[in-house]
Every structure is written in C-alpha cells, then in structure tokens.
Amino acid sequence: MHDREHLQKILVLVKSARVPILVALLISGWLALIDSLLRGCVSFIFFGAAANLVNFNVYTSTKAIFGDNKAKLRHHEKFFRHWEVATGGIYILVCEYMLNWHSALDRDIFCFHLPTFYGVVVAETYCEAIVYLAVHAVLISPMLLNVHYSFGYLQHSCMLVAAAWMKQKLANIAARGLDLLDEHEKLQNNYCTRSSECAAQEKALLSKSKEYEEMSRLAEEVVGLLTQRSEIAWRGEDIKAVARISRTSPAEAELFCKASELRKL
Question: Residues 6 or more apart from 152 whose CB is under 8 A from it?
C-alpha cells in the first residue's frame, strides 16, 4: 500500500500543474521583492507574481468542475502546464519589448530562472523541454547575441534536457510499477480464489475418503459374518454326512469331528 502511494505521488508531481504554478508564484514574488529592494520602490515584477496568482485561482476553480473524470483532468493539468510557459512568454513580450521595462535581474531571470523552471519543473518529457527552451531562446534572442551568453544558454539547456529526460524515465518507471502492482493484486486474488477452491475440494475428498473407509469396514464385517455363517453351515453339513455314513447320532458325529480336528493340531 505504501509503495503504491509513493509511486502515485511521483506521477502527481510530474504530471500536475499545481506544483509548477506554486513554484512560479513563489519565485516571482521573491524576485519582485528583491527587485523592489534594489530599486527602492515597487517592482513591475509583481505583475508576474499577480499573473501566477490568477493562474493558480483559475486552476483550482476549474479543476473542481471535472470531478473524477480522469481524461479531462489529464487534459486540464497539461493545459495549465503549457499555460505557465505561455505566461512567461507573455511577460517577456509585454514588459521587455512592449513597455520597455527593464530590471537589474533581467538577465538572471531570462537566461537562468525561466529556462530552469521550464526544463525541470514544467516539462513532463524531454521533448517538451526542448520545445520550451527553443521558444524561450527565440524570445530572448537579443540577449543571446553575445557568444559567451549564447553558448552558456546552450550548455545550460543541454543539462536541463538531460534532467527532463531523467524525470520522464522516473515517471515511466513509476507508471510501470503501478501496473505491476495491479497485476500482482490480480494474481494474488486469483491465487486466493484457487486456494479456497482447492481447500473446499480437499475437504470434500477427505469426507468421501472417510465414507469409503466406513463402507469398506462395513463390507469387511459383512464378509466376515458371511464367512463365519458359511463355515458353520459347512460344519453342520460335515457332521450330518459323518452321522449318515457312520450311522450314529449327530451328537456322536460332532464329537468325532472335534476329535479329528484335535488330532490334526
């Protein structure tokens, strides 16, 4: 039971959008606070934190609608994981390019925090990580014109894709483990059913065996009784024959037969 719970928790962590949204909310709020301290005023990064807070509220409210429908819940989780990436892209387009808002933390956020978030936290598979990182590279391409930064982003992305690949393998192992636990439970149930059937058959066979032993004992007793009666009958015929031949009484013939038997002994 505990093994099943652990495997289910692993799958929930990998496939759920709740964890990425909460991580994004925490990190964006933290960065906004630091940027505010550096600026000495409220940072525009709080808009990103507010967007993540809205995402979390919409995620939790819409998830309750689907109830126990697993197919719709999987689609819901996948949509909000993708939407978190879209939220980051919208933040870059609006704040960086449209409003031309800049921060001292921009390079850290765009070249380190967001790629790590996409590759490790959001991506369910390494293919998703590649797509997320490629799209993000296009959005921040003006920052990657420098050879140093471009190769640094490429190397960092390779490590993130490797981490996403290991995450995917871990999720596959967890899913396969749950399948094996289900098969084990089915086999265990079949074994218990067969064992109960075998125990019932064994009990029935023992009962039949006792009945056969009782019948055999009764048959032996009947045969013994018939044998005794036959011997008595044959002995009576012998006595009658001796009495007829010797022309004596049956009592004398019986004494004669007993004497003969004693001589034989």
Answer: 111
237 or 215: which carries more pLDDT confidence?
215
Q: Is 253 in contact with 240 (CB distance < 8 Å)?
A: yes
Q: Are 144 and 137 in contact (CB under 8 A)?
A: yes
Task: Outline where DSSP puts E strands in the chain.
Answer: none
Whole-angstrom Cα distance, residue 255 to residue 38?
Answer: 139
Would you state the pLDDT for residue 114? 94
**Integer Cα distance of 17 and 20 in angstroms:** 5
* Nearest-angstrom CA–CA distance, 141 and 93: 12
**Residue with structure tokens 């990580």?**
129
Whole-number Å distance between alpha carbons of 265 and 262: 5
Closest CA to 13 of 124, 176, 131: 124
- Lookup result for tokens 């609608």: 65
Q: 177 and 7 in contact (C-beta within 8 Å)? A: yes
Tell me the Cα Rg of the chain. 47
Hey, what are 144's tokens? 């990657």
Q: What is the DSSP letter of 247?
A: T
Tokens representing 234 are 């044959």
Tell me: pLDDT of 146 over 90.
no
Retrieve residue 229's tokens.
């009666």
Give the whole-angstrom CA distance, residue 103 versus residue 112: 15
Q: Please tell me the pTM assigned to this model.
A: 0.70
Both structure tokens of 127: 């293919």
Q: Write out the two tokens for 116.
A: 């790590």
- Where does residue 136 rank: exposed (0-12), middle (13-18), buried (19+ CB within 10 A)? buried
Other Cβ atoms less than 10 A from the Cβ of 1: the count is 6
Longest CA pairwise span in the chain (Å): 152
